[in-house]
Amino acid sequence: MTLRARKTVEGLKEYHPPLGGRDGLRLDFNENVGGCSPRVLAKLRAISSETLNKYPEREPGERAMADYLGIKPAQTLLTNGVDEAIHLLAETYLEADDEALIAVPTFSMYEIYALATQARVLTVQAGEDFKFPTEALLKAIAKKTKLICIANPNNPTGAAVPRAEIATILKAAPNAAVLIDEAYFDFYGQTMFDALGKFNNLFVARTFSKAFGLAGFRMGVVAGSEAQMKLVRRVSSPYNVNGVALECLPEALADREFVASYVEQVKRGRAKLEAFYRERDVRYWPSDANFVLAYFGEFRVAFVQEMRKRGILVRDRNSDPGCAGCVRITLGTDEQTERLLKTLPEALAAIGFQTQRSAESKR
Ligand SMILES: Cc1ncc(COP(=O)(O)O)c(C=O)c1O
Fold first, then answer.
1. Whole-prediction pTM value?
2. Residue 195 lies in a domain
3. CB 230 within 8 A of CB 67
4. Which domain holds residue 189?
5. Where is the domain boundary, 254, 283, 301?
6. Which residue among 78, 79, 80, 82 has the greatest number of ligand 1 atoms within 8 angstroms of its CB, and so is best to mutate?
7. Is the domain of 66 the same as that of 215?
8. Cβ(149)–Cβ(123) under 8 Å?
9. 165 touches 136 (CB < 8 A)
10. Pocket perturbation via mutation, ligand 1, pick of 27, 31, 88, 107 by most ligand atoms within 8 A of CB
11. Are residues 127 and 228 both part of a single domain?
12. Does residue 288 contact residue 267 with C-beta atoms inside 8 Å?
């Protein structure tokens, strides 16, 4: 007899982000590649052994976060990144044979955590323009739909969902937990936090891994109605967020200038990269996030390799549903954008790139 995992787990596909060998300019993971707030670093250097030897206290952090978001602490749960928030919602709301609904392409962890509960995952494919397929999603909502996850703006497409459409979905699925994942909020600017009081089934999440430059801290937040968050807390470890990150959180929240300056740079870079794609007649999808997805067709593999040779990592998204031939590039500081825009033409010349418009129209 050998030890067997649950059948559901044995059948799960592995999510394989590269977990090593990411030397170079990392424009592949949508992190803040410019660093983090100097105030956070100063706090980090002043951490005492007490922070490490006592169990972390989440409540003061939740009060600070609730204040920052303009909601109540009882609505607020700090999580080990948004990844954990997704996991907790799946654990709280999905029974075996329930349905989770997602529009693809999107962030992989929604599907993985939902499947791990033995629920079924229904996917709705976005069209070629990658606009959020609201109509199709509304049609797919059924009695068994218990979880709907929407990244707004979406990863890897950068497309945003208008508030009115989100409200329609919330009303159409009163029995489902609807997660609006605002991981890229800072680069977009529209939020659903102010609607929390209106919808009992709405959950909103944010991460500190992107604009705040704290991916290594693993800090996220999910908020919902007080009554629902009481239930979500039941499946969370009381010490899910580490003490070092908690101690630094107030500094991260207070340094608004750091985030504002970084976001400005990313937005400038995004406009420049999109302009570059237009000039070179490369098909791209206009983005509201800190990255842009573009179509390189048959040149995709060579392009990614050529960029790596030149010290810049970009992300091949070929295997995402509907993204064959696509590569996603994250934007960073002005300096990094300058380097990117200098390197791109060199890499494209080295692979003899020709625009893929004709190939693309055959897709
Ligand atoms: C839409 C979306 N949500 C969540 C995450 C993960 O966030 P965290 O680092 O807080 O777990 C990502 C990371 O790529 C993402 O793209």
1. 0.95
2. yes
3. no
4. 38-254
5. 254
6. 82
7. yes
8. no
9. no
10. 107
11. yes
12. no
